[in-house]
Predict the structure.
Amino acid sequence: MERGAVMYCAKQRTVKREIEIKGIGLHSGQPVKMKLIPAADHEGINFVRDGVVIPANIEYATAFDFSTTLSKDGKQVRTVEHLMAALYFTGIDNLYVEIDAEEVPILDGSAIEFIRKIREAGIHTLREEKIYAVITEEVVVKDGDKFISGAPSDTFTATYHARYNNRVIGDKKYTYSCMKEDFENVAMARTYCFLEEVEMLQKMGLAKGGSLENAVVFEGDTVLNPEGLRFEDEPVKHKVLDLIGDLYLLGFPLIGSVYSFKGGHRLNAAFVRELLSRKAFELKYSSQIDRVDFKRLVA
């Protein structure tokens, strides 16, 4: 379904055929080959590394330093959030992601290349109804002045409010709504960093594969990438992309309103865990969601 409300599907989905994607890890700098392999109804999204199956679920999220890492039985897969956002945007519920290194390839630093690969291969509609997690009560998690809140809503919206002491990023917010035709704007937003952070990140063993080809780099208020920004608010849109990818680790697409003020991967994960611990959502099949807008948009 080529529209902003792509996540609204009546049936579960997978890919029509196996997809191979090659690249390098943003933080590891290591070459990686990844295969997206069709899966059956209710199998969910699972990473496979060295024979270990790691469900794309918050239960297995173990590290959040500048990306989200999933781990199980001594194996890990890092930087899963962009791929998870791409799977959300394409409505994929069931998939095996076979990977031969520790990190998902960064490609251009956004989710759009994953989406294009999935579209090229085609999306297969399965027999079973899609399941949604419908937020039923307000939930808030905080870390200092940072917070994420969630509330019941008839649709899904994700808002990120950034506040940087930087002229380009500054104090901006952006809302993604599955009712709008703009999901590609979010999907195309690239990851970013500040030049003064690079040395620190590399001392931490991070950003070894980073370059102007897969990240936006700021030096003060200057964008070092020769092509500039894809959008004036590209950094804020990328934060929305990260938020959506991390939220999909709930295991089901949300219906509700989520607002993040200065949040990051760690707070995103805390919010998903709070939803679970509070049992603040109800799982519903698509046919059980009695909403006019939903019924109009499902495909």
Remarks:
- Residues 1-6, 295-299 have pLDDT under 50 and may be disordered.
